Amino acid sequence: MSDITSQRLASFRGILMQSDADLRRHLPEYFLTYYKHLNILRNPARIEHVIQKGREMHAYLEADGKDVLDLGAGFGIEALLVAIFGARHVVATEIDHDMVAVGTYLAGAIDPPVSHFESRFGDGIGMEFPSASFDGVMANCVISHVRDLEGFLREAHRLLRPGGVFFLSDENNSLFLPARGRRRRGWNDMEREPDGPYFAARREMLRAAFPELRGNQLEETTRVTRGFWGDQVTARAREFQERGRIEARPEFRFRDPRDGQYPERELNPFWMMDKFREANLEPELLPAFFSRGIERHPRQVIKDILRFFCSRWPTLSVYAWPIMRLRGRKAG
Question: How many CB atoms lie within 10 A of CB 224?
Fold first, then answer.
């Protein structure tokens, strides 16, 4: 590790070790809430966990001296670490203005500043970068929310240079059975009557499109159009009024009716590998990530055991850990 990399990592640690008051001077409250929830702020072990994860992402992207795009970068920390560990240029895209501002601030606050990192507002898939602009494309905890999965992967392929790498990490691995109950309770909360966010949004759409609907009739129409989105909602509601039933079935019963986004879509890693192949990305299942030596605790021993077996048999990872990791390579 170079001296400048070590210096930047020390500075990064120092920023996350600051008091809430110091952080609030430069960062939105959402940042503090989120990283407190993850127990990262002022927690040296968890900060090292984040750094080790960034180093591993850099390695899987083969990013040293390369150009990398992060699609849906959030606060940009993973992409920033990929830049710190030696990528030539990293572009982090995000559709939340506050998150983009955080990435920009952190890159400038680190000493010395990470000038080869760029935080941009916008949907990376829709920003029309020229073809073959990047050596690596990463998507961390994004793919399970995407409406058009196939289009997303095709665009990742287009953006990659020959031999380039698409790296995917997502916590909605359908083969990790212990997480299913929690995830599905979250889905049901989005549709909970009468004020679940998706249910309430669909009811407002229907009230605007069909002002004659009232009371129980409006509630029942809202209920039977569950899982539809956009123009589908009004089309299915009209069908229900005319026929008393809806023939079509939604692709997935939990989607934002306004834009079709998934809350958290369960994805089978082996099905995802087939989708990679369809997009002409040669897939590889990667072992789950487990941090090394960050604390003296029995859970570190468990992580060490899981890492030993998962690194030798990556397939075991998808049954032993909620987060799946895949790499797809564009033909050279």
Answer: 16
Task: Using the Cα atoms of residue 76, residue 133, residue 289 and residue 96 in order, give the sign of their dihedral.
Answer: positive
CATH 3.40.50.150 range(s) for the chain read: 3-174+267-330
* Residue 296 confidence (pLDDT) above 90: no
pLDDT tens by residue, 19-48: 999 999 999 999 999 999 999 999 999 999
How many Å apart are CA 7 and CA 113, to the nearest integer?
A: 10
- What is residue 168's predicted lDDT score, i.e. its pLDDT? 97
To which residue do tokens 């959402």 refer?
30
Fold (CATH) for 3-174+267-330: Rossmann fold (3.40.50)
Helix axes 77-84, 44-60, angle to 10 degrees: 70
Residues 137, 250 contacting (CB under 8 angstroms) = no
Measured distance CA(14)–CA(1) in Å, rounded: 19
The model's pLDDT over 140-188, given as tens digits with 9 standing for 90+, comes to: 999 998 888 999 999 999 999 999 999 999 999 999 999 988 888 989 9
pTM of the model: 0.88
pLDDT of residue 136: 98
- What is 158-224 written as a DSSP string? HHEEEEEEEEEEES-BTT-GGGHHHHHHHHHHHH-TTT-HHHHHHHHHHHHH-TT--HHHHHHHHHH
Quickly list DSSP for 80-140: HHHHHTTBSEEEEEES-HHHHHHHHHHHHHSSS--TTEEEEES-GGGS-PPTT-EEEEEEE
Residue 264: the pLDDT is: 82
